[in-house]
Design goal:
The chain has one domain. Helices cover about 90% and strands about 0% of the residues. It has 5 helices and no strands. It is elongated, with a radius of gyration of 20 Å. The termini are far apart.
């Protein structure tokens, strides 16, 4: 039993070390992945795409955010506390919020996006000379 626990601990340590050694590549892949798919959720909601398409997209984002939070957790485990270790989980929370809103209440999100778009356009029209 002790050998199995030791091997499992060793595998966990190796995964954590891999995550920290390849931090730039992991974050460089996961951040755009979550950003693009969350934006795609907004596009799907505005275009009133099928709920199953929005749900599949959201599931991919949930997976990406989970991986990103696990990756950041490896830095917390070794005591590295920097701005990115707080920004990345916050970014993940925003991505999850967008996708939850898009899957649970797409009509509400659509109204909000149109309101936001109208507000931005009205401001830009007032700013012209």
């Amino acid at each position: 039993m002790n050998i199995a626990v030791f091997e499992l601990s060793s595998v966990f340590e190796q995964l954590c070390e891999f995550s920290r050694c390849h931090c730039l590549a992991i974050c460089g892949g996961l951040v755009p992945f979550n950003l693009i798919l969350s934006f795609l959720t907004l596009v799907y909601v505005v275009r009133q795409a099928s709920p199953s398409l929005i749900q599949r997209n959201a599931i991919a984002v949930y997976g990406g955010v989970t991986l990103m939070v696990l990756h950041v957790s490896t830095w917390f485990l070794v005591g590295v506390v920097m701005v990115p270790t707080f920004l990345l989980p916050a970014f993940g929370a925003v991505c999850i919020a967008i996708n939850l809103w898009g899957t649970q209440a797409p009509a509400s999100l659509r109204r909000f996006l149109f309101w936001l778009w109208g507000t931005v356009l009205k401001r830009s029209e007032r700013a012209t000379i």
